Amino acid sequence: MALAGYFDQLSGLTADMLLAAMIDAGVDPIALESAMKSHHGVDCGINVTEGLVAGYRVTYTSLSCAEASVPETCRAIPGGGADSPAAVLITRVIDHLEKNVNGLRGTEDQAPTVEALGGRHTALRILLLCNALHLLGIESLHHVALPFAAGIESTPPLQAALMRGAAIQPVDHAPIDLPGCAFLTALSAGPMIRTGFTLRNMGYGGDDNDRGDGHVARLCTGEAGEVAGEVAGGGSVQILETQIDDMNPQFYGHVVDLLLEAGALDAFLTPVIMKKNRPGVLLTVLAPAALTGRLSGLIFRETTTIGLRTYPVSRSVLPRSETTVETPYGAIRIKVVEHGDSRRYTPEYEDCRQAALSSGVPLADVYAAVREAAGRVALDQLP
Questions:
Q1: Per residue in 29-42, pLDDT tens?
Q2: Alpha-carbon gap, residue 289 to 226, rounded angstroms
Q3: pTM
């Protein structure tokens, strides 16, 4: 099962609270400091303390950094650590942040200003959060509905734009900041609904600058299985998609095979016409929510894309089972699908193909033999 993380908003979701919760859940601050130094050239000390909120223990962190070592903008981050283990996560957060900045300002073809991206404060925290998530080994990230307060000062336009497509909760005060919002919304695999989540550990993080307010975020970690109903009956799954126009066409088959081997429910390619009338390919992947993080990382690693869309969809699936029929060319598996009171079957192509190759007969002959053998099987009596 994939390791999943679920951020629960007890009273806030700022970047510092998220980081403290991850450290409380098991991230070694020394290992995190080392990753920041070796992969990004950032000298950052992470001071960890504890306190009590409503009678339970909460972890707090404070940062002491050499300002000159911190990237001035988010876009400067990959240059210092493009080969780091957390690089894929960092790139996804940066792309999500820049896309929404440009969308708000109508400056699609221009690099956002330092101020628009939150400066060093935001860049540093994005680095810390992505590296901490990698160190925990979390493959799919989920979160509770994000706090959304009325008023531009309470929920600034950029944070509101980042939340587009996410579940929100109206509140009087929104204890969530720009880097925390960008991190959660860029890497979210959707809500934790019917995922068979097995709780293993919890971490509680507070904001060291606002201890008196008692703001606390909780991180729950554990194994997440397939979404209930994904294999039979339906349910909610994730779509991952991206358009590509600059990759060697020979690579596409390899990428699709890797995605299916990694647990994708389906993966397919569609020819599209992109901007400036360039021919391209739309890669679409259907995935269990728990595998969104793993499959996203695979797509970024194996393709030339720099951006990826993910969104939940619902689907209906007919009940199905598998049996084997005996033919002159060997045993061949068939997939039996139920629809109402009737059943139909489909031969497993690879079994038929291998049987045709090993027997030296046309593939059509194997399919004909399967049809004859299946006709002798009482499909309605199969379990």
A1: 999 999 998 888 88
A2: 8
A3: 0.64
